[in-house]
Amino acid sequence: MEDHSAPRIAIGTMTGTSLDGLDVAAVELDGAGLESTARLLEHRHVPLGACGVRLRALCEQAPHRAADIAALAHELGTLHAETIEPLIRALPRPVDLVAVHGQTVFHAPPLSWALIDPAPLLAVLDAHLVTDLRTLDLARGGQGAPITPLADWILFRGPRPRTIVNLGGFCNGTHLPEQTGTPDAIRGADVCACNHLLDAGARRWLDRAFDEDGAVALSTTPEEAWIPTIVERLEVRSESVNRSLGTGDEGVDLIATLDALPTAAKRLSTLAAGIAEVIARAIPATNEVLLFGGGAHHQGVRRELARRRGGAPTSLGAAGIGVEAREAAAMGVLGALAFDGVDITLPAVTGRTGPARHRSGRWHLAHTPG
């Protein structure tokens, strides 16, 4: 582990499985390794546009020529570069490293593919660049996900136990002990499909890309008799310990089943309630809950989650980090931890085994960082 007497700036990026945009976050870190503290400096979000449409087709396993995939990876890399370059100019000091997740187009361990062409980034960066932060975990028999729990520890640990809930394409949770605890006590898991289902329902029943803020779902109440059916369908997909969710777990076959309900609003409200029930069952009853991800805007899910948790403390975002900035900020923190030689995944979360013989990630090291 290297000594870092001066604060560092790391940039992280994320395009989640919801494909709702590219998030880029700059974080400032004091200290090194697990003794680090971090704060968000800036967050930017840009739509994926036509690139997102083509990425969705690839994620849905539509056949593509190698040339088309290469062009798509380059286009995504270019979008990253065009978003990161002006952010770097706006920051108070040079950037030390950039951690890029890429777009997950396939995930079924031990196979996983986060698509990105780093060349456009290397053309504009003076900092270290790291991609493929999941690969070392997969090589050691892990699921490669969830990857963020140690970053959540750096960013969000507090005086009482907390669960960080990410409402993305898939929902995942990180259970943090109180700040006097140790990282060994961190737990986390993928929970169930979330925005994958909510957005598929909106496309089918509303002819819209999504139900904005969950307004249609919120306009009525769920059909409680259908909740056990939804729960059974979703929980079976994550019933194995240390099993990450990925390609084939989106659960969209459930959508047609809900056509039996009388209105689009009833279907969306009931779907939101079923998802909330699965999530509520996965959270320790006494934990404070911090909601993040695009799905945190969905008022139908939030209403049902609060109701099913009996009013237990729930917040949107935390530590000055908004709901859409967390994953990108976490990637920046993970990049810094990996550079420091920290094993960035946890055996109790991903199921990986054995000592690390390599540094996490695929690195492009700058001659003169910053």
How does the SSE layout of this entry go?
Blueprint: E1 8-15, E2 22-30, E3 37-46, H1 49-59, H2 66-90, E4 97-108, E5 111-115, H3 119-122, E6 128-131, H4 135-139, H5 149-156, E7 162-167, E8 170-176, E9 187-193, H6 195-205, H7 215-218, H8 227-235, H9 253-257, H10 264-282, E10 288-292, H11 299-308, E11 314-316, H12 326-339, H13 347-350, E12 362-364
Parallel strand pairs: 1-4, 4-6, 7-10, 10-11
Antiparallel strand pairs: 1-2, 2-3, 4-5, 6-12, 7-8, 8-9
Helix pairs in contact: 1-2, 5-12, 6-10, 8-10, 10-11
Feature tags:
2 domains; Nucleotidyltransferase, domain 5; 370 residues; 13 helices; five-stranded mixed sheet
Helix content: 25-40%
Secondary-structure element series = EEEHHEEHEHHEEEHHHHHEHEHHE
The CATH class name of the largest domain reads Alpha Beta
Question: Unreliable segments (pLDDT under 50, ≥5 consecutive)?
Answer: none
Mean pLDDT: 92
CATH superfamily of the largest domain: ATPase, nucleotide binding domain
Shape: globular
By CATH, the architecture of the largest domain is named: 2-Layer Sandwich
Please count the helical segments: 13
Strand elements, count? 12
Largest sheet: 7 strands, mixed
Structural class: alpha/beta
Strand content: 15-25%
Annotated CATH topology of the largest domain? Nucleotidyltransferase, domain 5
First-residue to last-residue Cα separation = 19 Å
Specify Rg, calculated over alpha carbons.
Answer: 20 Å
Number of individual domains: 2
